[in-house]
Design a protein that fits this description.
174 residues, mainly beta, 2 helices, 40% strand, globular
Length: 174
């Protein structure tokens, strides 16, 4: 069972609410000197020159002052329930800056992604989080970056892990 904060439950049960759900992303890769932190909400103005917004949160050990989650314009396609395919989420980032494309193209092995859903009014309280996800593909065009995010395919694990032979399991063959 998942624990949900009282503020989130009140917002869900209210006819109208001022609460806003925010998704925080942390993208990490060995070739990045530090994780990329992104937010779907422009909670506060972080800088005037250059002008950018973001969310200050301590999720995953981030320093809210030095490492805020930067605001991005994003949308999503929810995972499908196909029988023979792993659940894959699609996150669509608006391609607002050439540097975004440079970062996506800068490495060839999969980057790991963690994401959390928080309320804008309480960004340190995680309502739900998903970790150890991987970017499976990145399709880039002039207007958007489409990231396919999924867990490691457990369907590919070997089962059973080993053969039950006399050499490996001598107690079974007496």
């Amino acid at each position: 069972m998942r624990r949900v904060s009282l503020n989130a439950r009140l917002a869900q049960d209210a006819e109208t609410t001022g609460e806003l759900y925010v998704v925080l992303f942390e993208i990490a890769h060995p070739e990045l000197e530090r994780p990329i932190r992104l937010s779907t909400d422009n909670t506060e103005r972080l800088s005037d020159d250059p002008l950018y917004y973001g969310t200050r949160s301590t999720w995953r050990g981030a320093d809210p002052i030095a490492d805020p989650y930067l605001w991005i314009i994003a949308s999503t396609v929810l995972p499908s329930d196909l029988e023979d395919a792993p659940a894959t989420a699609t996150v669509i980032l608006e391609n607002l800056d050439r540097r975004m494309v440079d970062v996506v193209r800068s490495f060839t092995s999969p980057a790991t992604v963690a994401l959390a859903v928080v309320l804008a009014s309480s960004p340190d309280v995680v309502e739900v989080e998903f970790t150890d996800l991987q970017i499976r593909s990145a399709d880039i065009d002039s207007g958007q970056i489409v990231l396919a995010i999924s867990r490691e395919e457990i369907e590919q694990e070997h089962y059973p892990a080993g053969r039950m032979t006399r050499e490996r399991f001598p107690g079974l063959h007496q």
